[in-house]
Amino acid sequence: MAQKTGLGRRYIRAFVSGFFVAVPVTVTVLDRLAYVARVDGASMQPSLNPEGASAPDVVLLNRWSVRNYQVQRGDIVSVVSPKNPKQKIIKRVIALEGDFIKTLGYKNRYVRVPDGHLWIEGDHHGHSFDSNTFGPVSLGLLHGRASHIIWPPNRWQKIKPSVPPDRRPLLSWGGSTEDEDDDDDDDE
Amino acid sequence: MLYSVLGKTLGFVGFTIQYGCLAHCAFEYIGEFVMCSGPSMEPTITNHDVVFSERVSRHLYRIEKGDIVIAKSPFNPRMNICKRVVGLEGDKVCTSRPSDSFKTHTFVPRGHVWLEGDNLHNSSDSRSYGPIPYALIRGRVCLKLWPPHSFGALSQSPNDGRITPSE
Questions:
Q1: At what angle do helices B2-29 and A2-28 cross, to 10 degrees?
Q2: Per-residue model confidence as pLDDT tens digits over A112-135
Q3: Tag placement on chain A: N or C end, fewer CB within 10 Å?
């Protein structure tokens, strides 16, 4: 009898210690390295969800590559929706900070993306809730960069950055070599 | 000999990963220590004060008006700002400086908060850059740890009338 309770206790101890290893490691991997998410909605057709809701795509979101908030034009990224913090949206980066962009139905026809912001759009114009509705989004809302489609298996592929040819920025600061003549007044 | 060294190294790496992950979870979901700098929250928080910011109420969406929060700056995500929440989504907030004779008001849009420093004369906050998305909030400041003579909970806003009480 005593042997049996000892065995049970050992099992409980093994379970608890395994639990305390597995849960933090899983949470950290999901927060820091990679996250898996199902894509809902038609806003990124035809790149994602080409068949609509019948076969939703599952994408791998690389969180490590955005740890320094570095993205390129054309990357597909997931950001926390500025209108609803409980929701994440997946869109394509069209313009980075400092770029001039011609908008599609935003309140201003031409916009300069402010510092620390992104201009994101869905590929399915007119069926997408994107920067043309809510304006540029802050880089701090960036959640991850979609790097692979992992489900369904026949669509397994790496996602390459590509800007739609008609959506290139009108005037872009090619890199960090350009001097921006903005008045920086950060008095925090 | 080789096996024991290998085993020890693997064990050490495993422990490092385990405790690193535990630390990540603690800092990400429970709270963290922050050193504040800058004059924008005087007199509640002065320069180089150390505060404890808890992450629980941010994850449970329990941030209320009057709370002091640490948030990512909307124009530089690597920089953090420490401000007081003056309005939640749907609230009417006053956008003018206290010295202005004309009072201008605006409404905070959905999913956003309105942040203001306690030092209204020397603070760049939502009055200059507008409401910020809720998701930029990192945590709620709940305890002041340093300097020792001001240890304890944080005081209420010194600026009366900025925060309109909710019905």
A1: 70
A2: 999 999 999 988 888 888 899 899
A3: N
